[in-house]
Amino acid sequence: MKNMRTGVIGVGHLGRFHAQKYAALSQFVGIFDQNAERAAEVAAELDCQAFSSVGALLAEVDAVSIVTPTSTHFAVAEAAMQAGVHCLVEKPFTLDTEEADTLIGMAQERHLVLAVGHIKRVHPAIQHLRQAGYGAPRYLEAERLAPFKPRSLDIDVIMDLMIHDLDLTLLLTGAEPVDVRAVGVAAVTDKADMANAWMTLNNGTVANLAASRVVREPARRMRIFWQDRYASVDFLNNTLHIYHRGAGSVPGIPGVRDEAVELPKRDALAAEIEDFLNAIVTHRPVFCDGIAGRRVLAAALQVRVAVEAFLQH
Ligand SMILES: NC(=O)c1ccc[n+]([C@@H]2O[C@H](COP(=O)([O-])OP(=O)(O)OC[C@H]3O[C@@H](n4cnc5c(N)ncnc54)[C@H](O)[C@@H]3O)[C@@H](O)[C@H]2O)c1
């Protein structure tokens, strides 16, 4: 992995962190950002080259992260794969499923690793719950509420924030949404900045997901219910409690045991990039491939259709 020649395209808020991780994990060649001033700043910090064009960077690397705005993911990833470069594309994968299909096809034809940055998959709480073998939950509810930031305004809150919980819903259930109802409000931008979706999946699971990018108090929580237990994940505070029906008692609720799971502190972005680079070397499946990225994109687009119908009422 240390010999892998890597680069980052787009070194704004998140891309700078990608660059830092590659610098520690691989032979980090350099960056390209269309904002030359920003590129020079990050290149100076990491002592790497700021390339003058995307093509110049692609000619020198084996693998890149694409951390540009979503509206540019397709064009940049297409150029990278045409140059034979493995890609980790930030979420959301692309703007629509046609773009996603083209990139998935290119990766298959050219035997390239195509990963999508659904980073919550590597969260220790989610990994714990997947390994616990509880099966598909009956019901999930999530809140992902963030203060307003003038970034990712080329997309709505569904693609920006709710897509994380949609991804976890599909991952934990292995099912597809069949009935999606949603509401949303364009509070600050011209796109939905708050949304609430209620969906039934084809295995009977129900999910209720709320997202906002215009609140004062941030929250990132998910509650997951099975027949005999429920899990409460707080992504902000890195806690996981699992409440089991049976022996033991939580004060005031007889017959319920509270299991507070000790979660390791993990650098999620380093874990995600390490997994991507490992997949290139070992040919093992990547943590989130293009097909999984497309699957959650399609679900997010279903939510958007429902929100748009609501907004037009
Ligand atoms: N996985 C996550 O949790 C997560 C979190 C935040 C952002 N993101 C995603 O990361 C991406 C970037 O978000 P951000 O917050 O860093 O945005 P940002 O606006 O801070 O950075 C984007 C950078 O890309 C550059 N850029 C724009 N078009 C370009 C092009 N064609 N070629 C090269 N550089 C270009 C801009 O100059 C800017 O420096 C978005 O897709 C966003 O959805 C993912």
TrEMBL record:
PANTHER family: BILIVERDIN REDUCTASE A. Residues 4-118 form the Gfo/Idh/MocA-like oxidoreductase N-terminal domain. InterPro entries: Gfo/Idh/MocA-like_OxRdtase_N, Gfo/Idh/MocA_Oxidoreductases, GFO_IDH_MocA-like_dom, NAD(P)-bd_dom_sf. SUPFAM superfamilies: Glyceraldehyde-3-phosphate dehydrogenase-like, C-terminal domain, NAD(P)-binding Rossmann-fold domains. Residues 154-225 form the GFO/IDH/MocA-like oxidoreductase domain. One of its GO terms (molecular function) is nucleotide binding. Pfam families: GFO_IDH_MocA, GFO_IDH_MocA_C3. It comes from the Bacteria. This is Oxidoreductase.
